[in-house]
Design goal:
This protein is mainly α. It is built from 22 helices and four strands.
Length: 536
C-alpha cells in the first residue's frame, strides 16, 4: 500500500515512466534468460557462436549508451524512448523467426542498441520531471525495475515450455504496446536550450572536463562489479556447492528471488531511513561497504571446517549464497537512488541524458574488466585450491570503493545535500536546531550562488571564513529569524561560509554562534542586545 500511495503522489509522466520500466523489464527478462539455450540447443550453434551473438547484444547496449544519451539531449527524451521500444519490438520479433547467423546477429544488435536509446532517456526524463523528489522517484524506479526482473522469467518459462518463438512474439508484442503508449500518453521533454549548443564532440569534451562527475563514475564502478556477481560468481558457486543439477538450479532461482524481493519490499523504507539519518554521501559510502560485506558469508563458508561434498557443506554453502544475495540487494538498495540523484546534480541539469549515457558506458567498461578479473580469481581458486581468493577480492573492492566515496565527500566533491544528515542519540536535537548550511566548491550550474551550500556536519578541510548576512525577517536559506529584527539588531550576524573537518569541530564552531531556529533564550537575547549597543 505504501508503494502504491507513493506511486500515486507523482505526476502522470513519472507514473507512466515507472510503469514503462516494469513492462520493459517484463518483456526483456521474459526472453533473454532463455536465448542462449535456444541458440545452442534449439538451433545447434557452436558455443563460440552463441557467445558472439550474446556479446554483440551486450556491446550494442553498453558501448552505445553515450550515443543514445547524446541523441536524447539533442532531439528530446520522448523520441528516443519511442525509437528504442520500436527497435526492440523488431529485434525480438526477428529473434523468433530467423535461424541464420547474420540475421541473428542483426536482431541481437537491434535489441541491444534499443536499450542504449531509451535507458539514458528514461533516467534523464525521470530525473527532470521528479525535481526535488528525485531520490524518491529513483527508489520507486528500483522497485518497479526489480518487479519486472522477478516476473519476467516466470512468464517466459511458461511460454518457452510451449515454444521459444511464442516467447519472442509475446515479448515483441509487449514492446509494441509500449511504443503506442509512449506516442499517445508521454509528454515531450528534453534538455535545456543550451544543450543544443555545440557539436556532440564538444559536449562530450565538456563532460570529460567535469572532474567530480568522472571521479564519481570511477568510484562507482566497483558497485556494479560487485552487484553483477549475482549473475556470475554466485551461480557458479551454486553449482560447486549443490549436490545435483536440480539443487544448483533451485539455489540460483532462490538467489534471484531473494535479491528481487529485498528490493521490492524494502527499497522505499531503506531509502527513507538512509535519507533521514545519513544523507546521500554517507548513504552511498555505507552502501558500498555493505556490498563488499556481502561476500563475508561466502568467505566464512569456505573457512568452516566441514567435510566437502557432505550434506552439511551443501547446507552451509547454499545458506551463504542466500545471505550474500540478500546483503547485495540491500547494499544496492542503499546506493541506487542516491547514485542516480548524484549524477543529475553533478550534471548541473545540463546534458543530463548524455551524463547518464557516459556514466553507463564507464561502468559498462568497468563491468567487463571486473568480470575478467573475477573469472581469473574463480579459475585460480579452482586450480590452486585457494577458494577464498574471489571473496577476499570482492571484499577488498567494497572497502576501496567506500573509501573513495568517503574521500569525495570529505573533499567536497559531491553535490549539495538538500537536508541535514541527522545523527542519533542526544545529538539529534542539536543537529535539527543547528540547521546552518554553507556554500561548497561544487554546486550545480542551475543553482544560484546564494543557494549553494553543504551541511555543516558534512565535513571539509577548508578553513572557515566569516561573512556578514543582512538582517531580515527570513534568511536566504529559509530559516526564520524574526527575533533578529525584534531585538532591534542593526549589525549583521556572522555566518560560517565553509565546512569544517569533522562533526566534533562542526559542533565546536557552531557553538560560537548557536543560533537556534526558534530564537535565542532570554539571557542570550539580553547579551546580544548589550553587545549590539556597545557596537553602536
Amino acid at each position: 500500500m505504501r508503494t502504491l500511495a507513493q506511486y500515486r503522489s507523482f505526476p502522470r509522466p513519472v507514473r507512466l515512466l515507472l510503469l514503462n520500466q516494469l513492462t520493459i523489464n517484463l518483456g526483456f527478462y521474459m526472453l533473454i534468460p532463455y536465448l542462449a539455450a535456444h541458440l545452442s540447443e534449439g538451433l545447434g550453434l557452436a558455443t563460440w557462436m552463441v557467445g558472439l551473438i550474446l556479446g554483440v547484444r551486450n556491446f550494442s547496449q553498453q558501448g552505445m549508451f553515450l550515443v543514445g544519451g547524446s541523441l536524447a539531449d539533442r532531439f528530446g527524451y520522448k523520441p528516443l524512448i519511442v525509437a528504442g521500444c520500436l527497435l526492440r519490438t523488431l529485434g525480438f520479433a526477428l529473434l523468433g523467426v530467423v535461424d541464420s547467423v547474420p540475421a541473428l546477429i542483426a536482431a541481437s544488435a537491434a535489441t541491444g542498441f534499443a536499450g542504449a536509446l531509451f535507458n539514458p532517456a528514461v533516467r534523464a526524463y525521470l530525473g527532470q520531471d521528479a525535481g526535488e523528489r528525485r531520490v524518491e522517484a529513483f527508489a520507486l524506479f528500483s522497485v518497479f525495475y526489480q518487479a519486472g526482473i522477478l516476473l519476467g522469467p516466470l512468464i517466459g518459462l511458461a511460454l518457452t515450455g510451449v515454444s521459444f518463438s511464442l516467447t519472442c512474439l509475446v515479448a515483441a508484442g509487449v514492446f509494441a504496446l509500449l511504443t503506442v503508449l509512449q506516442l499517445k500518453a508521454l509528454p515531450q521533454r528534453g534538455g535545456s536550450a543550451r544543450d543544443d549548443c555545440g557539436s556532440v564532440l564538444t559536449q562530450w569534451r565538456s563532460i570529460a572536463s567535469n572532474r567530480p562527475f568522472l571521479l564519481f563514475s570511477l568510484a562507482m564502478i566497483g558497485s556494479y562489479v560487485m552487484s553483477f556477481q549475482v549473475y556470475l560468481a554466485l551461480p557458479l558457486q551454486a553449482r560447486l556447492v549443490a549436490r545435483s543439477e536440480f539443487g544448483a538450479t533451485a539455489a540460483v532461482a532462490a538467489v534471484f528471488a531473494v535479491s528481487a524481493l529485498v528490493t521490492i519490499f524494502g527499497q522505499l523504507r531503506i531509502t527513507g531511513w538512509c535519507r533521514a539519518r545519513w544523507g546521500a554521501g554517507r548513504s552511498m559510502t555505507a552502501g558500498l561497504a555493505l556490498l563488499g560485506a556481502a561476500f563475508f558469508p561466502l568467505l566464512g563458508a569456505e573457512l568452516l571446517p566441514v567435510t566437502p561434498d557432505s550434506m552439511a557443506a551443501t547446507t552451509v554453502g547454499i545458506a551463504a549464497l542466500i545471505v550474500a544475495a540478500a546483503v547485495l540487494a540491500l547494499g544496492t538498495a542503499v546506493v541506487f537512488p542516491f547514485e542516480m540523484d548524484t549524477i543529475s546534480s553533478l550534471s548541473g541539469n545540463r546534458l543530463l541524458a548524455t551524463h547518464y549515457g557516459m556514466y553507463n558506458t564507464i561502468c559498462g567498461v568497468g563491468i567487463l574488466l571486473g568480470n575478467l578479473g573475477t573469472g581469473w580469481a574463480l579459475g585460480l581458486a579452482r586450480d590452486s585450491g585457494a577458494a577464498v581468493v574471489p571473496w577476499l577480492t570482492m571484499i577488498g573492492l567494497g572497502v576501496a570503493c567506500a573509501l573513495a566515496m568517503r574521500a569525495m565527500r570529505v573533499r567536497g566533491l559531491l553535490p549539495v545535500e538538500p537536508e541535514l544528515a541527522r545523527i542519533g542519540g542526544r545529538h539529534r536535537a542539536a543537529s535539527r536546531a543547528r540547521g546552518y548550511r554553507v556554500p561548497s566548491s561544487v554546486a550545480t550550474d542551475s543553482a544560484p550562488d546564494s543557494d549553494r551550500g553543504v551541511d555543516v556536519l558534512a565535513g571539509s578541510r577548508r578553513p572557515a571564513r566569516m561573512t556578514p548576512t543582512p538582517a531580515r525577517a527570513t534568511s536566504d536559506r529559509g530559516y526564520p529569524n524574526q527575533w533578529h529584527e525584534d531585538c532591534g539588531l542593526t549589525q549583521p550576524i556572522p555566518r560560517i561560509h565553509s565546512t569544517v573537518t569533522s562533526p566534533r569541530s562542526a559542533m565546536s564552531s557552531q557553538s560560537q554562534l548557536d543560533l537556534p531556529a526558534d530564537g535565542p533564550t532570554p539571557a542570550r537575547r539580553q547579551r546580544m542586545l548589550t553587545a549590539n549597543n556597545r557596537r553602536g
